[in-house]
Design goal:
It is a single chain. This protein has about 325 residues and is of the alpha+beta class. It contains 8 helices and 16 strands. It has a 6-stranded mixed sheet with strand order 8-7-9-6-1-16, covered by helices on one side. It has a 4-stranded antiparallel sheet with strand order 2-5-10-11, sandwiched between helices. A 4-stranded antiparallel sheet has the order 13-14-12-15. Strand 10 and strand 11 (about 155-160) form a beta hairpin. The longest helix is centred in the middle third of the chain and has 21 residues, at about 200-220. The protein is globular. Bound molecules: (3R)-3-hydroxy-3-methyl-5-(phosphonooxy)pentanoic acid. (3R)-3-hydroxy-3-methyl-5-(phosphonooxy)pentanoic acid binds near residues 15, 31, 134, 135 and 136.
Length: about 325
C-alpha cells in the first residue's frame, strides 16, 4: 500500500495560460515544455485505514496548506471511497516560487498513488489526472521536449523529442525564494476575465506552438529562441493588462533579461523565459552554460543560480 515516485519540473517554452474549463482544469490551448533533470520532487504515498485523515509532510514539516489539493488529486486517482493517505514530499529546490514545483509534485504524486493503490495505468492517463490538479503537471509525466494538445474534453501529451536528441541546458536565476503573491490558477482566471489581450493570446497560440514544434524537430535554436521569448512576453503582457494587474517580475528579473539580451548581441545561443514568478530561466546550448551562469550570477538581486540539463518523465523509485 506504499509507493515512492520522483518527477522533475518542466519549463514551458510555449505557455499554458488560461483554462477552457475551470471545474475540470482543462487548458484553453496547447503548450510545449522541456522536462529538467537535476531539480526533483520525491513523493511517497501510503494508504492506510488506520489513519484518522490524510496527512501531508513537505520537506520534513507538516503542511496543511497544500493538503486539500493533494487529497483531491488522490481522489481522482482512486475515487473518493479510499483509505486515508500519508503523503511525504521532498524537493531539492524552492517550492511555490515560480519554479514549477507543483508540476513535479503532482506528477510524482499520481505515479506513487496509482502504484500504492495497486493500479496499472498508462502514462497518458496519469498525465490527465495530474493535469486536472495542476495543468503544467501533465507535462512532467513525460521527458525531453513535451507537447500538450488541448482537446474539448481532454488533453493529449507526448514527448516530441527525447532529452538526449537535443541536450539543451537551462540556467535558472533565483531572484526571490518566497511564495508567489498570486497563484497561477487564480492569475490565469483573472487574465481570462479581465485582460483585453486574452482573446488574441488564445488566437495566436496554435501558430506559436507549431513554430516551436517545428524548431524542436529541426533543432533550430534561433527559431525556438524567437518564438519562446515572444510567447513568454505575450503571456506577461496578458497579465499586466489584467485588472487588478498581475506583475510577477522584480528588478532582478529585468536585469537578468538584459544580461541575456547582451549575450545574444555577442552571438551566444541563449534565450530567456519567465513563468508565474520572478525567476528567469535561460535556455542555452550546453557549451554556453558556464558563461550564461556567470552572467546571471553577477546580476544585481540574483540570490543563486541552478543549472539543469533535460531529463526523463516521472517514474517509480526502486524501493517500491
Ligand atoms: O500548472 P499551473 O497551474 O501551475 O500553471 C502553470 C503556468 C505557467 O507556469 C506560467 C506556464 C506553463 O505552461 O507552465
Amino acid at each position: 500500500m506504499r509507493a515512492d515516485a520522483q518527477a522533475q519540473p518542466n519549463i514551458a517554452l510555449i505557455k499554458y495560460w488560461g483554462k477552457r474549463d475551470i471545474e475540470q482544469n482543462l487548458p484553453a490551448t496547447g503548450s510545449l515544455s522541456v522536462t529538467l533533470d537535476s531539480l526533483w520532487t520525491k513523493m511517497s504515498v501510503e494508504f492506510s485505514d488506520a489513519l484518522p485523515g490524510d496527512k501531508l509532510v513537505v520537506n520534513a514539516a507538516a503542511s496543511e496548506k497544500m493538503l486539500p489539493r493533494i487529497s483531491a488529486c488522490l481522489d481522482l486517482v482512486t475515487g473518493t471511497d479510499r483509505p486515508r493517505a500519508s503523503i511525504e514530499s521532498e524537493s531539492n529546490f524552492p517550492i511555490a516560487a515560480g519554479l514549477a514545483s507543483s508540476a513535479s509534485a503532482f506528477a510524482a504524486l499520481v505515479v506513487a498513488a496509482s502504484k500504492a493503490a495497486g493500479q496499472d495505468r498508462d502514462t497518458l492517463s496519469l498525465a490527465r489526472i495530474a493535469g486536472a490538479a495542476s495543468g503544467s503537471a501533465a507535462r512532467s509525466l513525460f521527458g525531453g521536449f513535451v507537447e500538450l494538445q488541448a482537446g474539448d474534453t481532454n488533453i493529449d501529451v507526448e514527448t516530441i523529442a527525447e532529452a538526449d536528441e537535443w541536450p539543451l541546458t537551462v540556467v535558472i536565476a533565483v531572484t526571490e525564494e518566497g511564495v508567489k503573491p498570486v497563484s497561477s490558477s487564480e492569475a490565469m482566471n483573472r487574465s481570462a476575465a479581465s485582460s483585453p489581450f486574452y482573446s488574441s493570446w488564445l488566437e495566436q497560440q496554435p501558430a506559436d506552438l507549431l513554430s516551436a514544434r517545428d524548431a524542436v524537430l529541426r533543432k533550430d535554436f534561433a527559431q525556438l529562441a524567437a518564438v519562446a521569448e515572444h510567447n513568454c512576453l505575450k503571456m506577461h503582457s496578458v497579465m499586466w493588462g489584467s485588472r487588478p494587474p498581475i506583475v510577477y517580475w522584480n528588478s532582478a528579473t529585468l536585469s537578468c533579461m538584459e544580461a541575456v539580451r547582451h549575450l545574444q548581441s555577442e552571438g551566444h545561443a541563449v534565450f530567456f523565459t519567465i513563468d508565474a514568478g520572478p525567476q528567469l530561466k535561460a535556455v542555452c546550448l550546453p557549451d554556453q552554460a558556464e558563461l550564461v551562469r556567470s552572467a546571471l550570477d553577477t546580476c544585481a538581486g540574483v540570490g543563486r543560480t541552478m543549472v539543469s540539463g533535460l531529463g526523463a518523465g516521472a517514474r517509480l523509485l526502486d524501493n517500491t
